[in-house]
Amino acid sequence: MSTETVVKNFDTWKSFLGERVIQAEKMGMSDETITKLAFEIGEFLDKKVDPSNYSNRAIKELWDVGTDDEKHTIAGLMVKLAKKNA
Questions:
Q1: What's the whole-model pTM score?
Q2: Please, is 83 exposed, middle or buried when counting C-beta atoms within 10 Å of its C-beta (0-12, 13-18, 19+)?
C-alpha cells in the first residue's frame, strides 16, 4: 500500500498507524519512542504530502502553526487514537 493511498483516507491512516504501533509495542518500543517516531512521520508528511481533504488539511494547519512541543502532543494523540482504532 502506497503512502499516498494510506493518507488519503483518514480511517485507513488510523488503521495503518494502529497496526504499526502494535508492532512497535510487540518489539518492545516504549510509548515515548513510538511518539517520537510518529513525530518524525508527521514531519515527513508535512513536507511531502498535500492534504487531499478537509480533515487532513486541518491537521496539517495545526501542525504548521504548532511548536515542536505541540507537534509532539499531536503525534502522541495520533498514536493514542491509532491504538484505540487498531
A1: 0.76
A2: middle
DSSP 9: S
pLDDT tens across the length of the chain (86 residues): 555 555 567 777 778 888 889 999 999 999 999 999 889 988 888 888 777 778 778 888 999 999 999 999 999 998 998 888 77
Three-state SS annotation for 19-56: HHHHHHHHCCCCHHHHHHHHHHHHHHHHHHCCCCCHHH
Q: Per CATH, is 3-85 categorized as 3.40.50.720?
A: no
Q: What are the residue boundaries of the structural domains of the chain, listed by start?
A: 3-85
Place of cell 493514542: 80
